[in-house]
Amino acid sequence: MSVPKYYEIQIPALKLLTDGKARRRFEIEEPLSVYFNLSEEEKEQMYDSGNGPIFTDRVQWALSYLNMAGLVSKPKRGLYQINDAGRKILETPNKLKEYIAEKLQTREPTKKKNSNSKEIQTQQIEADSTPEEALYISYQGIRNSIYREIIDTILSKNPREFEKLVVQLLQKMGYGGQIKNSGQVTQYSNDKGIDGIIREDILGFGRINIQAKRYAIENKVPREDIQKFVGALAVAQSDKGVFITTSDFTKGAYEYAQSLNFSTKIVLINGDKLAEYIYNHNLGVQSERIIEIKKLDSDFWDNMIDDK
Fold first, then answer.
1. Per residue in 20-44, pLDDT tens?
2. Among 126, 163, 155, 161, CA closest to 67
3. DSSP bridge pairs for 208
4. Single pTM value for the model
5. Whether residues 163 and 276 fall in one domain
6. Do 275 and 166 contact (CB within 8 A), yes or no?
7. Contact 38, 55 (CB under 8 A)
8. CATH number, residue 274
9. Best CA proximity match to 158, nearest among 117, 214, 225, 98
């Protein structure tokens, strides 16, 4: 048979994981190749572009979507393990596509949708998409997968490392300018509600105070935590704060931050925005490949005389 599509791999992959054992991708790939009765030639079939084996890539994407939808967990980097939600969906496997689409949609509740564009409910490229649309959908799908991997990796690290990371990120984003040692992580045992500080000028008159919460995705930061941070800013005699979490904030937390008067300014950064900033500012990520797309230079060709 031909190499299966990534969505055709998802249910067999879930069934393979029902024993509860955490497996690496290659430990899942081999039994899946047996399940689909793939020949050695089919397993080793490469993309025309040369960017790796097709089957390996599709297994990776199948696992990524299952992870993004919360059907498999990653106890450690590179390991996949089925959870209760994954076992539950196996009772109605025909609803998997719809379930994944819904979960991907709810992962980005605060993002505005462009009413002039197609609403992407799944990352599957529809057959009637133009090549440009298909490329855009693929690009967005890859970014979303990397975003989730960034958050999963952060959650596997020590909370102290997260505090160091957010200080590095703000510096990467240009805060602190060219000031040497502009960012610092506060003393762990006596941080007084401030996890990090960015000095905006050499003398330290301007400061950005940081609060960092390394929470599981489903554990939202409540309004009370933002209020405590405002109190910590008052004690530190600062009027600027950035509250960063790997999860999200409750509606009350957003409303409270927006209601603050101009004397105190707090910016809330949730997990989706955090991953996006890390990705865009190249912190802990590297370019894998660059695709160059060209179009005709109208000025060049229009200067040529047309045939009559």
1. 999 999 999 999 999 999 999 999 9
2. 155
3. 198
4. 0.69
5. yes
6. no
7. yes
8. 3.40.1350.10
9. 214
Amino acid in the structure at residue 242: V
Looking at the structure of the chain, the number of domains it has is: 2
Residue that the structure tokens 């109190």 belong to: 231
CA pair distance 167, 103, nearest whole angstrom: 31
Residue type, 305: I
- Domain identity same for 94 and 203: no
On whether residue 113 sits in a domain, the answer given is: no
Q: How far apart are CA 242 and CA 267, in angstroms?
A: 5
User: Which of 108-112, 137-141, 206-210 holds the top average pLDDT?
Assistant: 206-210
50 within a domain of the structure (yes/no): yes
Distances (CA, A) of 75 to 21, 67, 219, 272, 297: 11, 11, 17, 20, 51
Instruction: Please state at what angle helix 6-16 crosses helix 54-68, rounded to 10 degrees.
Output: 70
| CA–CA distance, 6 with 66 (Å, rounded to integer) | 11
In a domain, 288, yes or no: no
Quote the domain boundaries for residue 79: 6-106
Alpha carbon distance 272, 217 (integer Å): 10
Q: Do residues 102 and 163 both lie within one domain?
A: no
Pairing of strands 207-213, 23-24: unpaired
**Residue 106 CB-density burial (10 A; 0-12 exposed, 13-18 middle, 19+ buried):** exposed
Residues 102 and 173 in one domain: no
Nearest to 166 by CA among 196, 201, 193: 196
Give the helix, strand, coil percentages of the chain, each rounded to 5.
Answer: 45, 10, 45
Q: Over the stretch 232-254, which tens digit does the pLDDT of each residue have? A: 999 988 889 999 999 999 999 99
C-beta of residue 177 within 8 angstroms of C-beta of residue 206: no
The answer to the question of residue 122 being in a domain is no
CATH for 45: 1.10.10.10
